[in-house]
Amino acid sequence: MGTIVSISTAPGIGGIGIIRMSGENTFGILDKIFVQKNKQNIKDIKGYSMKYGHIIDNGEIIDEVLVSYFKAPKSYTTEDMCEINSHGGNVIEKKILELCLKNGATLAEPGEFTKRAFLNGRIDLAQAESVIDVINAKSYREAKSGIKQLEGFLSNKIKEIKQEILDVLVNIEVTIDYPEYDIPEVQENEIKDMLKSVGAKLEKLEKSFDNGRIIKEGIKTAIIGKPNAGKSSLLNAILNEDRAIVTDIAGTTRDTIEEYVNVKGIPLRLVDTAGIRRTADIVEKIGVEKSIEKANEADLIIAIFDSSKNLDAEDLEILKLIKNKKAIILLNKSDLNVVIDENDKRLRDVTQNILKISALNKTGIEELYDKISEMFNLNEINLDNEVLITNVRHKNLISKAIENVKMANETLNNNMPIDIITIYIKQILDDLGEITGDEVTEDVINEIFSKFCLGK
Ligand code: GDP
After folding, report:
1. Which of 68, 199, 204, 262 qualifies as a FRET site for 394, CA 20 to 30 Å off?
2. How many A from CA of 332 to the centre of ligand 1?
3. Would you write out the chain's pLDDT as a tens digit for each of its 456 residues?
4. Please, what is the Cα angle at 62 between 60 and 63, to 5 degrees?
5. Strand 106-107 to strand 257-263: parallel, antiparallel, or no bridges (unpaired)?
6. Strand partners, 262
7. Nearest to 358 by CA among 317, 412, 304, 397
8. Best probe residue, ligand 1, of 226, 228, 282 (max atoms within 8 Å of C-beta)
9. Whose Cα sits closest to atom 16 in ligand 1?
10. Measuring from each residue's beta carbon to the nearest atom of ligand 1, which residues come in under 6 Å?
């Protein structure tokens, strides 16, 4: 593979910048642009060492740098690599990049370094995908789950399941000479046991996506309520929380904005925050129908009521909307003369999650966080020992594998010939192989790496 180069640090002003090169001509190109203070031949330079010197163009010093050397196969990509640590900023890094290009390197595509690490067999596809998760993480919990996956937590689990299937499959294939005949009972039982065990493991993984998705995307939360109930006051109380990390995310439609807030370890994805700010009137302006849509899409609905006023027809409409949903009722304006009773049957019939707050004085907000934490078992998500699926691609493949377990079971129960059953069993192996990348098309690979940032 040719030699690629890229600036790996984020653009902008910073102390240092890193220009990364990988490929067989790395040291040849470096030799043309880098003059070491104590000149040493590349043969004598050890991998994982650093040299001080200058980047030179036509005899002119471009920058004072440190260069790290990584020799194949012990590098990120398994190829010869170097990282030039230059001064940061908008000028020098680009100048050094241009020099590398002028001397024969080509510009790396997004994710190309990691793609090479995968194609060269150092990491599998699930591990490669976790790199982007770690980089894009919006919370420590999300980063941690990425690091676990990079360490091979998920890959090992998949391998373990595949091995279980293979052991049975190999056994069948060596002992059955005539695949069109009925399957001996011993082996039928063996397959049944295996399918049961594999099915249970896959279902556990599939289930873990409930938590995995929350860790990665946040709890999709809709705040609904009548005009003046206090939606935007609540929103502001949450967004202005000390140490809340707020990230704008473009919503699915053009005029919706989602804001991701990580507050006290609770990842909230607040939908239609622009709508709340703009109209201050979710139910009336966008209509009940739209509210139903919003409520249906959300993982959590926070319905807010002005408790200084009696419940009216519109409030009851909102209550109807959230029945049988994961919802919290907030009785706002608790600092005023309260007329709604928290034990009102019309409320209790909908949910037991009822809290009194004052969005204005920011009282009761802490209890709201505790309630959300409790409802989504956030304190119980154990990243240390449990394998968690956070990636939709993985989740879909696991669901597909579960379908094939079911099909294999069905064919077995219907006394179909063994070769039909093994087709389904092999399909499970393929589905799982697609997660780790053993069985994956080039299109899928390209799609995955195109989402990476430059220089990784
Ligand atoms: P929205 O239309 O649902 O977004 O409601 P706002 O957040 O704009 O609040 C409407 C009015 O109620 C504003 O004047 C707020 O200052 C006031 N308000 C909101 N929450 C409280 C509260 O807890 N106590 C009191 N006294 N007033 C509040």
Report:
1. 262
2. 8
3. 899 999 999 999 999 999 999 999 999 999 999 999 999 999 999 999 999 999 999 999 999 999 999 999 999 999 999 999 999 998 999 999 999 999 999 999 999 999 999 999 999 999 999 999 999 898 888 999 999 999 999 999 999 999 999 988 887 776 666 655 566 777 888 899 999 999 999 999 999 999 999 998 899 999 888 888 888 889 888 988 765 566 655 544 445 567 888 888 889 998 866 666 555 444 445 555 666 677 788 999 999 999 999 999 888 988 988 988 999 999 999 999 999 999 999 999 999 999 999 999 999 999 999 999 999 988 888 888 889 999 999 999 999 999 999 999 999 999 888 888 899 999 999 999 999 999 889 999 999 998 888 878
4. 135
5. unpaired
6. 245, 267
7. 304
8. 228
9. 360
10. 225, 227-233, 276, 280, 332-333, 335-336, 358-360
> Measuring CA to CA, which residue among 236, 213, 215, 188 is closest to residue 425?
188
Structural tokens at position 133:
């998760």
Pocket test for ligand 1, best of 285, 291, 336, 360 (most atoms within 8 A of CB): 360
How many whole angstroms from 243 Cα to the centroid of ligand 1?
23
Spacing, Cα 44 to ligand 1 middle (Å):
71
> Distance, CA 360 to ligand 1 centroid (Å)?
7
In whole angstroms, what is the distance from residue 242 CA to residue 373 CA?
Answer: 18
**Ligand 1 atom nearest to 229, measured from its CA:** 3
Helices 185-217, 418-436: inter-axial angle, 10-degree rounding: 30
Instruction: Give all domains of the chain, ordered by start, each with its CATH number.
Output: 4-108 (3.30.1360.120), 137-208+388-439 (1.20.120.430), 215-380 (3.40.50.300)
Q: What is the C-alpha separation between 75 and 154, in angstroms, rounded?
A: 23
Nearest ligand 1 atom to alpha carbon 226:
3
Tokens representing 67?
A: 């260069």
Q: What gap in Å lies between CA 230 and CA 292, rounded to an integer? A: 19
Give the list of residues 6+ apart from residue 72 with CB closer than 8 angstroms, or none: 78, 79, 80, 81
Backbone dihedral angles phi then psi of residue 36, each to the nearest 5 degrees: -75, 150
Q: How would you list the strands of the sheet with 257-263, edge to edge? A: 245-250, 257-263, 266-270, 219-225, 300-306, 327-332, 354-356
What tokens appear for 271 in the block?
């939908």
Report pTM. Answer: 0.83
86 alpha carbon – ligand 1 mean position (Å)? 52
